[in-house]
Amino acid sequence: MEEKRDTENLIASDTAAAPITPMEEVDVPAAATPLGRSRVRSLARSAGALLAFAMVGLLVLYGASRVFEPKNNGGVGGLNAAHQAAEAFLGEPENSLDALFIGDSETYSALSPVEIWKDAGIPSYTCAIGKQYLTYSKSLLNRALAVQNPKVVMIEGNSLFRPFDEQKLVKTAVKDAFPIFERHDRWKALTPEDFVAAPENTWVDDMKGFRLKWGIRPADASKYMASDERVQEVPELTMTVLRQMADACRADGAQMVFIATPSTKNWSQARHNGMVKVAEELGIDWIDLNTGDDEVAIDWDTDTRDYGDHLNYYGATKASRAVADILRDRYGLQDHRADAGDTYRHWDRAVRAYERQIEEAEHFNATCLAPLGSDLRATLPLER
Asked: With contact defined as beta carbons under 8 Å apart, do 271 and 232 qualify?
């Protein structure tokens, strides 16, 4: 009995292995690891495929945009007449424009670059279409700064009070990046050249974006710029875009300026007060041709073509000459009429075309309109 070994005591009780239970045998974490890695790899492959698909889609859009983009700025499909004139600065000699005017129909009716050239020899361009939103103004500015080096960029105040939303801002950015969304209807006019040729900008607008109108429809100016303490606010999204435009001008060495052209229907003291506030907030010069020291002496019986909404040729001549003085005296822009070389030679042709249109308009007024009574004359569709 003494020699019998107690095998149960060979292992001390405090070092004996704990018994394994069925539950502990199942609860083995190592089995979950391969499933987690597999899922991560699957998600990575899906993300990679999605990214590749997006990249291919962007490349297709980019390539299609290059094909659908007009190969010339001279109206070879893709641009209507209004946009064609507004963007014809692309055909001007590179870095030859010292001033740009950007805005809506108030701008293209009031500011004549050819008149400014005749008066002060300052090369300028009017970048404007009817009811222009500031989103398009920003696009025009960016396109112009890519090929021109203006010293002064004047932004028409009227367009700042035309509200837009984030959706319009995004749509404009997409169209700028992928022109096919704006030019998709060109598919009918595509030629083999569209697939291989690079765009060329050879067309020059002799009117430099200005539209000469001579109809006369008197305005009621009895309440024009009446005293008013109210302040018409500029929308905050507009302010955001204006800051971006101001930054772009500063980066290019241009001075951005706000300007209001004469209009009894579109301008008021409340808007003037609003522009004073905006100009102070952004640190930008503000010129109001409707009031104060910069007021232009518009005769509202003869100088408007549509009851004070827009100026006609007679009013535009006055406004343009006032702006020529401001550009020369206040901002120091130089007279280039005596410069040698080819850079400004085409302005002589522009002056001839401009004066020919004026001659035709004045002859029409003298022979066809003057004999009519003022009431009947005001009802005729005289604009062209």
From this structure: yes
CA 163, 167, 169, 170: dihedral to nearest 10 degrees? 180
Which domains does the chain show, CATH number per domain?
Answer: 53-377 (3.40.50.1110)
Residue whose structure tokens are 């004070």: 308
With tokens 């998709």, the residue in question is 184
What's the predicted TM-score (pTM) here? 0.79
Report how far residue 340's alpha carbon sits from residue 225's, in angstroms, rounded to the nearest whole number: 45
172-228 confidence digits (pLDDT tens)? 777 656 555 455 455 556 666 666 556 677 788 999 999 999 888 899 999 999 999
For residues 329 and 323, what is the distance between their CA atoms, to the nearest angstrom? Answer: 10
Contacts of 320 (CB under 8 A, 6+ apart): 110, 111, 112, 113, 115, 116, 119
How many Å apart are CA 311 and CA 320, to the nearest integer?
11
With beta carbons less than 8 A apart as the criterion, state whether 128 and 102 touch. Answer: yes
Quote the CA–CA distance of 259 and 267 in Å, as a whole number: 11
In DSSP terms, 288 is beta-bridged to 260
* Tens digits of residue pLDDT in 315-368: 999 999 999 999 999 999 999 999 978 899 999 999 999 999 999 888 887 888
DSSP-derived pairing of the beta strands 124-128 and 152-156 = unpaired
Alpha carbon separation from 62 to 55, 131, 240 (Å, rounded): 10, 29, 28
